[in-house]
Amino acid sequence: xxxxxxxxxxxxxxxxxxxxxxxxxxxxxxxxxxxxxxxxxxxxxxxxxxxxxxxxxxxxxxxxxxxxxxxxxxxxxxxxxxxxxxxxxxxxxxxxxxxxxxxxxxxxxxxxxxxxxxxxxxxxxxxxxxxxxxxxxxxxxxxxxxxxxxxxxxxxxxxxxxxxxxxxxxxxxxxxxxxxxxxxxxxxxxxxxxxxxxxxxxxxxxxxxxxxxxxxxxxxxxxxxxxxxxxxxxxxxxxxxxxxxxxxxxxxxxxxxxxxxxxxxxxxxxxxxxxxxxxxxxxxxxxxxxxxxxxxxxxxxxxxx
Length: 305
Prior knowledge:
By secondary structure, the chain is of the alpha+beta class. It is built from seven helices and 13 strands. The chain starts with a helix and ends in a 6-residue tail after the last strand.
């Protein structure tokens, strides 16, 4: 599932590409993706509306209009894909019928996969077409994701209903608040606790493992056994790792691609996730994998205590 860095990558790219644009048409190809209203009502609610900006709360993308917000949860395999319009077809002048219409292929992508109309596939659930001809697809192979329109002034209420805690990139997530949140959960194991979205929104399996390794904290440690120094190391590690992951457009360990259809480039920088059996990059001890909180977790049995 895309985590904070992956969703932040998409938010930033969509802010650049669709903020300020007006939706010309909405085609809902899989009605069940829409929650809270019919597909027809959904399309009518945002057709001819101008997008003000793109926000994010944890793993949610928030596409804001004047008065309404389109909430998108990518879940496991959801993708928001931006496409430039195809190169206009070139035809011979009217009246000349000797030759068939001449067509020109879409121009080559300008940068990182951008450009080209992008074909609709079996996994395409919603197609948003803008007045300037650009297109945004929502694709989801496993069909777990959803879209829901909520009044913008009720965003906070919706987030609360979804039981989402403070976003880790929120300005309020200073060390003291992070420490107090972790300490409030007493004997909970630290790694599953970091992934608890109702406590802190955005951290998932990848970055919880990486932060525990960087801070030299064993993923099974109880929250109430961590010193201030260890919690400070963990807080710093989470921030540094996820900021770096955003810089590299996230980690593509499964189905994730960015808004231009390109995979993230952070995987080579992962030090423990997916590397069971390899030597620890600090002490050369073999990394081990255990099921912790229902999720596979890789760590160094020597470095992490």
